[in-house]
Design brief:
mainly beta, five-stranded mixed sheet, two-stranded antiparallel ribbon, 7 strands
Length: 166
Amino acid sequence: MKLDLDRTPTGRSDLPIEARYALEFDPIGPDKVVVKGALLVDNLESRCVVHGELAAVTTVACGRCLQDFGLGFTVPVEVVVLRDAERESEDADTLVIHQRRGEVDLTEALREAVVLALPQTRICRDDCKGLCARCGADLNEDQCSCVDDEFDPRWDDLPDLDDPAT
């Protein structure tokens, strides 16, 4: 995704985005993410600010049952392109690119925004029961025949924190 600084009109304009990013940072994370939307471009005298939110969709494995499901999330984006190399950005959360003219490649900045916005906890649905800790059966599909031990005797000697006498 490129932004042409020389052809971008002064003032506010839209930058349509439709891209596919490969995320090769996590062995259990998504491989590819599709990002769509439009960002606002505020072209000022000494800087060009690209900001807004994009919609992202990917396929990931559930953290409880390990089944693949489609995950949609929003990606907040804020990139500042400074044309005056002497100035520095005041906001540490904003990605700053120094370039006077020509095309600015926003690919890596958008990919970084996608990686930062990707939810760390990926659950297929709120009522997902996950897998049985003993036999590995998917508890969403059927009940397993494992016996659930209510209490581990190794904890007998610990004091009860709810009892005011201890």
